Amino acid sequence: MSTSPTLPRPAAQAAGGPARPGAVLTLSCPQRAGIVHAVSRFLVEHGFDIAEHQQFDDAVDGRLFLRTAFSAAEAVDAGALAEEFAPVAAEFGMDYTFHDGARPRVLVMVSKFGHCLHDLIYRWQTGSLAADLVAVVSNHEDLRPMAEAAGLPFVRVPVSAQTKPAAEARLLELVGAYRADLVVLARYMQVLSDDLCRRLAGRAINIHHSFLPGFKGARPYHQAYERGVKQIGATAHYVTADLDEGPIIEQEVIRVDHRLGPDQLATVGRDAEALALARAVRWHAEKRVLLNGHRTIIFT
Questions:
Q1: What Å distances lie between residue 268 and 54, 69, 192, 271, CA to CA?
Q2: In whole angstroms, what is the distance from residue 288 CA to residue 281 CA?
Q3: Which residue has the higher pLDDT, 16 or 164?
């Protein structure tokens, strides 16, 4: 497979008129005076219109984190801008990235639970996801009808203990074939190998069906029920080799009480999972997530 199919444009994207090309600058550096002035001056001198600016001064680590969105009269060349910005970055010791306005391409991985996939499809089709779904990969056939009804290619990649290395190699082939910028594990019930986690570092998001840390392993809602919890939670995080320990992007909690049994808790939990995952994908797509070691700074 060497090409990816033409996919339907999200309705909101197709309906709107042409917008000014936009881009985003994200950076972190040691705190000192003059950083924001230097960034603003560079953008203004290049004829850009600053549309949104957010920063966080981390007093504990002594670092500044910044996200500035800007628009231009024509498409932005992120690579060329990065080169021109290099002297400014060197002066302040910045780790920085210019991002063009391209919508990230998302490959979704699922097993048998369809609520997160369904929610992502709806948000993509209505233009509120800030990213484009390009394919669905699963170790089961259950969600093929849902994916294909949305016009998405569905690829089954069976996984067993014996075939796991070949299955993960196939997954990487699909990531390349569909030019996926982001892999989303939307209740994909397989543990990725350490090697695959390293290969997908920073571009794979998982939704965990509980409020981390806690209630790890199988049947989390039954564990929650047995402990008499008063809130059901879900956690969206980046995938790392440490199982369910990756940097947390978003968490959602919903209050419950003693009247709900395990099945009802699971139903409530599915709402939390879909919400947390959708927010995490959108914030990642909009370059609103900055890493600080194992922590995240989220500019919402």
A1: 34, 36, 27, 6
A2: 10
A3: 164
User: How many whole angstroms separate alpha carbon 219 and alpha carbon 236?
Assistant: 18
Catalytic residue among 58, 142, 244, 271: 244
Q: What is the pLDDT of residues 258-279, one digit of tens each?
A: 999 999 989 999 999 999 999 9
The percentage of the chain sitting over the pLDDT mark of 70, rounded to a whole number, equals 89
The Cβ of residue 111 has, within 10 Å, a number of other Cβ atoms equal to 17
Q: Which residues on adjacent β-strands are paired with residue 248?
A: 237
CB 234 within 8 A of CB 273: yes
297-300 CB contacts, 8 Å cutoff, 24+ apart: 297/56, 297/58, 297/65, 298/249, 298/250, 299/54, 299/56, 299/67
Cα distances (angstroms) measured from residue 62 to each of 31, 65, 290, 292 = 6, 10, 15, 12
How far is residue 73's CA from residue 65's CA, in Å, rounded to a whole number?
A: 27
Q: Whose CA is closest to 92, among 161, 150, 138, 42?
A: 42
Does the annotation mark 271 as catalytic? no
105: Cβ contacts below 8 Å, ≥ 6 apart: 4, 131, 132, 134, 178, 179, 180, 181, 182
SS3 of 66, please? strand
Sign of CA dihedral 103, 138, 280, 128: positive
**What 3-state DSSP class applies to 144?**
helix
Length of the chain equals 300
Give the per-residue pLDDT at 216.
Answer: 63
The structure's pTM equals 0.88
Q: How far apart are CA 157 and CA 168, in angstroms?
A: 9
CB crowding 166-184: b at 16 or more within 10 Å, else e: ebbebbeebbebbebbbbb
Q: What is the pLDDT of residues 112-168, one digit of tens each?
A: 999 999 999 999 999 999 999 999 999 999 999 999 999 999 999 999 989 999 999
23 burial level (CB within 10 Å; 0-12, 13-18, 19+)? buried
